[in-house]
Write a structure and sequence with these properties.
binds adenosine-5'-diphosphate, about 325 residues, about 30% helix, binds magnesium ion, D-amino Acid Aminotransferase, Chain A, domain 1, 3 domains, alpha+beta, Dna Ligase, domain 1, four-stranded antiparallel beta sheet, single chain
């Protein structure tokens, strides 16, 4: 079998491998994300988990948090109440929200400038002036962070994203437990492995200190010790598959979100206490953001739960689209 070269991004590799299995010719085009796929008279592109059949408008919308928030409001989809602060004078609008708040500069990406847990107006002003650029202020949601994947506007998989943690055995220190966890064969550097190694950085140190712990503490047998407040796979977290637990109302809701955002491949970040009961009706539960090129490795390689061949489902969708041509 033709195998993917080393320097290829993880989701792209899963699609490369699945396509190759199906006899689809794959060619990399000089960057780690883009594949030209060819079958019979047809060709199309794959980039990350996106395909040529994705709406480019949808992709642009997903990249603009403010537009996504307004779409949620328009379609009455659950998300945190928010205001748009364009300039310092608009900060008074924040008074209509309930503290604590989250601030997200609208023109920064990948978490830059996101501040969680802003306690009052004085802090809102302080954080706003630090960046001094248009921002969304929104109320805090609560609970776990889930990643929901819809393909072709249908719910297909859900993963509970657990920030980096270790489980005690009553004998080893947190430092030793981290080293042990990092020896797992799935944990590589950056985005190359299925998981990423846990790095003990300032945030981990600070998180432990705030809880009266150090790297030398010995957690009790079976005790789960979180190492970071938030963070996905890229900071050493892991994903557990919970697809089968999602209730019908939520499956329906996720399809609606995909259609509202015009994205036939979409990763929806949800915060809520559980996906087993309808999110509509849960307090402080809703959409955090949506992603047009969601990572696939957490669904193919969950640390717990059933692996889902979502790359296969993306290629099934491509085939359905080709048949319509
Ligand atoms: N309304 C909210 N309530 C609670 N936590 C939030 C809220 N919005 C964002 N967060 C936290 O901040 C993180 C980053 O926010 P997000 O909107 O996903 O921006 P980005 O992915 O660009 O960093 C989220 O993964 C979540 O942990
Ligand atoms: Mg995010």
């Amino acid at each position: 079998m033709h195998t993917a070269p080393e320097a290829i991004e993880a989701s792209t590799r899963l699609l490369f491998d699945e396509a190759t299995k199906r006899g689809i010719a794959c060619e990399l085009l000089g960057d780690p994300h883009t594949i030209l796929m060819n079958q019979g008279e047809h060709h199309w592109y794959v980039r990350g988990s996106r395909t040529s059949f994705q709406s480019s408008v949808g992709k642009t919308i997903a990249d603009i948090k403010l537009v996504t928030k307004r779409i949620c409001r328009h379609f009455n989809l659950p998300t945190a109440a928010f205001v748009h602060v364009k300039k310092a004078e608009d900060l008074e609008k924040v008074a209509s929200l309930q503290y604590p708040l989250v601030m997200k500069p609208v023109d920064l990406r990948h978490g830059e400038g996101v501040v969680v847990g802003i306690p009052d107006m004085e802090a809102s002003q302080r954080y706003y002036s630090r960046w001094n650029r248009p921002a969304i202020f929104e109320e805090m949601l609560e609970g776990r962070e889930y990643r929901v994947l819809c393909i072709d506007f249908q719910f297909v998989a859900a993963a509970w994203r657990k920030p980096a943690f270790v489980t005690g055995d009553g004998q080893h220190t947190i430092e030793e437990l981290i080293a042990e966890k990092n020896r797992h064969p799935w944990r590589g550097e950056g985005h190359q492995g299925y998981l990423t190694r846990i790095e003990v950085d300032d945030l981990v140190q600070e998180y432990l200190t705030d809880r009266g712990l150090t790297l030398q503490s010995v957690p009790a047998d079976g005790e789960e010790v979180k190492l970071r407040k938030t963070g996905g796979l890229s900071t050493g977290g892991e994903a557990w598959d919970v697809t089968d637990l999602v209730c019908d109302e939520n499956r329906e809701l996720f399809g609606q979100i995909a259609r509202a955002c015009d994205l036939n491949t979409i990763g929806i970040d949800m915060m809520c206490s559980s996906l087993e009961t309808p999110i509509v009706g849960q307090e402080k539960a809703g959409i955090i953001e949506v992603n047009a090129s969601p990572g696939l490795r957490m669904h193919h390689y969950p640390m717990q739960g059933t692996p889902r061949n979502v790359a296969g489902l993306i290629l099934d969708m491509v085939e359905r689209n080709l048949q319509r041509l």
